[in-house]
Design a protein that fits this description.
154 residues, GMP Synthetase, Chain A, domain 3, 3-stranded antiparallel β-sheet, 3-stranded mixed β-sheet, 4 helices, elongated
Length: 154
């Protein structure tokens, strides 16, 4: 895996990151640090990537478990050390999983597996940060299940 991060030039603290898979992301600093607040901060990107990593795992695990998952949001709330290096010291993950007839135990298991075995980002951050998790399940009956679609057509 590779990425290139390039400073955009004199007069600010903006950077463009280009990934090995061909995508570009802008990052910027806070105004008090010379940035212009035009893009996420680098540490926000770390948190953002961690959220994406674990949400991906949770959806994949639930799908493999034949759960009718329709949405998965995860809100990460983090605290950082007050002195340099300002590493994350606490991160709380709150998952909102939406679907039809989702089993509580399977959602709980998917979240645990992500954080204990699959999500490289959260496992890495757990070396410096105290991790906690919570979740809620929302029943979604607005879209018919595949079985109901088939039955309605017959």
């Amino acid at each position: 895996m590779e990425t290139t991060v390039r400073w955009t030039g004199v007069g600010g603290m903006s950077f463009i990151a280009e990934t090995g898979s061909g995508h570009a992301v802008m990052m910027d600093g806070a105004p008090e640090g010379g940035g212009h607040n035009r893009a996420p901060r680098p540490m926000e990107m770390v948190l953002l990537g961690t959220g994406g990593c674990t949400a991906y795992d949770v959806v994949l695990i639930l799908r493999k478990g034949k759960q009718d998952v329709r949405g998965c949001d995860v809100k990460l709330s983090a605290e950082r050390a007050s002195t340099e290096p300002k590493v994350f010291t606490k991160i709380h993950f709150h998952f909102t999983v939406t679907g039809r007839n989702l089993k509580l135990a399977q959602v709980e298991r998917a979240i645990a597996l992500s954080h204990e075995k699959y999500c490289s980002a959260s496992i890495m951050l757990a070396k410096t940060a105290e991790m906690s998790h919570s979740f809620e399940i929302i029943e979604d009956s607005t879209i018919p299940s595949e079985h109901e679609k088939t039955t309605a057509v017959d």
